[in-house]
């Protein structure tokens, strides 16, 4: 029975693999990644530097640009090609592996998923116009998350210093740990009740909502439309004049 099940899974995998068209791209020596146009990127932290493009429709591969400009790997649909936007009808996935990436930018509905864990000294993730990022990040020095215009970040971060900038309906959902955290939120949401930081400074404006776990010190400055919920028992607490904050156990 086990043998039959294994053969069935193997056969299904083979069918799925054969339905995908893959093309390896000759692009090397990048440290930054920029992706847009709704393309999905599967990123793997690896010593092997590799870029490959897959789609169930072979013609789609012709419209996907993967090129380096300086140290920036740009991934997008070539909209200058005739009817490119309308012809690309099936999902496009770009697989990228590298061990030296310091910045990832996603925009216009692009999706970035990390297959394992990114381990680097510093990393900046910038999300715009409905783009999303999910995965695990471990930075020994600093991690910066910037989410704008309805974009979203969901994942785990372990870092020395965390900086977040969340605006225009964007959201960030975190777990993990930071020694220091600096949070700016304007019309955004930070759900970090499972994220533990030793020291945090928070600025919240325009109906922002923030939840975070803190150990030692917390400084909060909000307008009258925003609210902060914090967990823990910090020794040092500072609230601005208009701040609304609630501590929960």
Automatic annotation (TrEMBL):
Signal peptide coordinates: 1-19
Pfam families recorded: DUF2807
Annotated keywords: Signal
Domain Putative auto-transporter adhesin head GIN: 29-234
Superkingdom as given in the UniProt entry: Bacteria
Transmembrane annotation, as ranges: none
Presence of keyword Signal: yes
Official protein name in the record: Putative auto-transporter adhesin head GIN domain-containing protein
Organism: Flavobacterium arcticum
Record lineage: Bacteria, Pseudomonadati, Bacteroidota, Flavobacteriia, Flavobacteriales
């Amino acid at each position: 029975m086990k043998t039959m099940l294994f053969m069935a899974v193997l056969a299904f995998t083979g069918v799925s693999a054969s339905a995908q068209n893959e093309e390896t791209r000759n692009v090397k020596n990048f440290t930054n990644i920029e992706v847009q146009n709704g393309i999905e990127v599967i990123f793997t932290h690896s010593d092997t530097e590799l870029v490959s493009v897959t789609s169930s429709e072979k013609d789609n591969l012709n419209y996907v640009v993967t090129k380096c400009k300086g140290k920036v790997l740009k991934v997008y649909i070539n909209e200058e090609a005739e009817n490119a936007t309308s012809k690309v009808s099936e999902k496009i996935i770009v697989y990228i592996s590298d061990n030296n990436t310091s910045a990832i930018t996603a925009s216009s509905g692009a999706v970035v998923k990390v297959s394992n864990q990114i381990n680097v000294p510093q990393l900046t993730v910038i999300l715009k116009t409905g783009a999303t990022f999910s995965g695990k990040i471990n930075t020994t020095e600093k991690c910066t998350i910037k989410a704008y215009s309805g974009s979203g970040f969901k994942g785990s971060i372990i870092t020395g210093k965390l900086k977040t900038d969340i605006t225009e309906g964007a959201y960030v959902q975190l777990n993990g740990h930071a020694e220091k955290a600096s949070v700016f939120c304007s019309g955004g949401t930070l759900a970090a009740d499972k994220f533990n930081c030793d020291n945090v400074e928070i600025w919240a404006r325009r109906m922002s909502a923030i939840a975070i776990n803190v150990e030692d010190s917390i400084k909060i400055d909000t307008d009258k439309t925003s609210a902060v919920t914090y967990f823990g028992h910090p020794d040092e607490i500072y609230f601005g004049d208009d701040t609304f904050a609630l501590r929960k156990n």
